[in-house]
Records
---
Amino acid sequence: MTNTERDYHGYTPMDYDADSEAGEVYQRCLSYLLTHAPIERDDTVVDIGTGTGIVALELASKCDHVLGRDINDEWLQYAQEKAAEKGVENVSFDHGSFREPNVDDDVDVVVASYALYMAYDEGGTDELRAAIDGLAALNPRCVAVAEKMRFGPEQTSPDYETLPPMGTVANLLVDAGFTITDIETVAESVGVLIATR
Ligand SMILES: C[S@@+](CC[C@H](N)C(=O)[O-])C[C@H]1O[C@@H](n2cnc3c(N)ncnc32)[C@H](O)[C@@H]1O
C-alpha cells in the first residue's frame, strides 16, 4: 500500500484501522451489526460513511454486492486498495454523501456505522433528518445503524453533546417510514438500531 502518509485531520486511515481493531466497544458494535442486520445473500448493501471500508469488507461475504460511499476520497482510495489486497471483488467504493449517496442501483439494505453522528454534530437534528431522508430515498427495506448515540438520561459530559439521543435517531427513522425492529445498547454512548419497512 502506498498511502501510509495519507492524513485526515492528522489521523491516517491506517491509524483509524488500528484503533478500530483494538477498540473493544467498536468490535462489539460491529459484531452485533453483522449478526443481527437482516442481510440476505442476494442483497445489494450500501455502507454509507464507509471510511476505510472496515464494515463494507465484512459485509461483502454476506451479500451480493456492497457499495461503500463517503465524502473523503482519500479514505475511499485506501478502502479500495484494501479490497484489492484482500481479493474482495464484490465491493466498490465511490464518492457519496448522506444527503446524496450517489447510488443508481436498487438497494436492499443501508448500513451506517459510526457515521451518522457526524451529521448531528454538523447541524443538529435538522441535518440528521436530512441525512436519514437521503438514505431513505434509496428505498431500502432495512436501515441498520451502528452508531455513537446517547442512550439513557441526559449525560452531563460535554463529550456527549455532539452525539444524537438514541430516541431522536429512532424517531427520524420512523418519520422516514421505517419501524424500529431492534435496539441494542452496546455501551453508554454506542448502540445499534435496526429499522425495517
Ligand atoms: C468514524 S468514520 C466511520 C467509518 C466506518 N463506517 C466504520 O465504521 O469504521 C466516519 C466516516 O463518515 C464520513 N462522513 C462524514 N460526513 C459524511 C457525509 N455527510 N456523507 C458521507 N460520509 C460522511 C467520514 O468521512 C468518515 O469516513
---
Amino acid sequence: MLTIYCEHITKRTEYIFDVVFNYLIKTPYKITNSKQEFTESNNPKFSYTYEGELNIIPSALLSQSSIKQNIDLTWHNHNNQKWLFKTNGELLPFDVFSSIFYLITRYEEYTANDNAFDEHGRFLLDKSILTNHYQYKKPLAHIWAAELKQKLTDKFPQIQFEERKYSAELTVDVDQLYAYKNRGVINTLAGILKKLSAGKWKQCKTQVNTILQRKNDPFDNFTFFKEISKEVDLKYFIHCGAKAKNDPRFINSNSNKKRIKQLAENSKVYIHPSYKSLRNSKLISIEKEKLELIINKKIEHSRQHYLVAKLPKYYQNLLKTDIKHDYSQGYVLENGFKTGMCIPYPYFDLSNNLKTQLTIHPFHVTDLSILKNEKNLQDVYTIIDQIKAVNGTISILWHSDLFALQNSSEKWKSILLKIVEHATA
Ligand SMILES: [Zn+2]
C-alpha cells in the first residue's frame, strides 16, 4: 500500500488519484492529510506538497474549484518526452497529477472561444494544445503515469502493480439500418421518383433490385460484421430518431425491429442519440426507450450522432437519462488520443467540480480518417501498436453504411479486416 501525504485533499485530488492509481498504474494507495500518520507510516510513501524529501510539487490546478483562464501550459522536455506543469519536485520534476487532470477532463474545451468549435459544436483539433509536436498521436496520460510508476519502482521495488490486459473493440454507428428495404410504399415510390428526376439511374436500379430482392441492400452489412465479431468485441450504436436536419428517418417497422433484435442477440446494441437531441435533450430518453423496447434490454451506453459532445451540457443530459457510458470522445477525421487515454475512465464535470457516474470510453481510430486519406491506414497501425504497448483498449469507430457509400464495398471491407487483424494479432 502506497501512502500519499496531501495537505489539502480536494475533489480534484481525490478524483485524479483514483484515476492514476486505480485505472492507470493500478496499485493500492491511501491519501492522508495527517503529517503524523504520514511520518509514522512504514509504507512506501511520497508527498504531494511543496516540501518533503520525496515529493511531487503541486501546481495550483488541483487546489482550485473553479475553471481558470490563463493557465501556464508551456511544454517542457524531460526524458525524451513532452511534459506540462513543471514544478521541480524530488520524485518527479512535473506535476503529473495536474497534467493528467488537465487532459482527461478536457479542460481546454471549457476555456476555449467559440471559434475553437466547428459549426456543430465539435472542438477543433488544431485549437488543442495536443497539436504541439503531435502529442495527440500518443496516449500521453499513460506515458506520464508510466514515468511515475518507474520512479516509484526505483525508490520502492516492493510496490506491486497490477497489469492491465490489452483489448480491442469495434464500435459501429448505424445511422440507417437499410438504404432501401422496409421503407413502406409511399417512401419507396417518392425515393425512386426523386432519383429518376435527378438522373441518378444507377442508384435507382440498385433500389429497384433491392426491393425485388435481386440484390442485397447496400447498407445491410450485418452478416459481415457478425463474422468480425468472432475476433473483436462488437458494439452497435443505433440511431432511432425522426427525420430532421442531419438526421435520417428511423423506420419503426416490424421487420426492422426484428432485425435489430437479432443484432442484439449476437452483439451489444446501444443508442446513437439523434442530432436533434442536442437541442432537445428529452429526445435522448424517448429514443433510448424506443430501442430498449425493441431489444428488451436496458441501455446505459451511448454515442452521439455526429460525435457532438459539447461539455458539460451534453454529459449532464446523458446522466439525466441514466446513460452511464459514453463513446463520443475522439477526433472526427483524425486518429489519435483526444483525452490522452485509451481505457475507460470516470468523467469529472469541471463546471460542478465533481466526479460523475458517467464513464468515458475514448475511441482512437475512425473510418473517416482513412476515407480522407488512405495513407492514414499506416497511422492506424501505429496507434494500435501504442495502445498495445500500454495495455489499453483500442476502440475503432466504423459506419455501417460506409461500404455502400464508397461504391467499392469489397475494398473497404478488406481495409476493416486488415485493421481488425492488426488489432487482434
Ligand atoms: Zn451517426
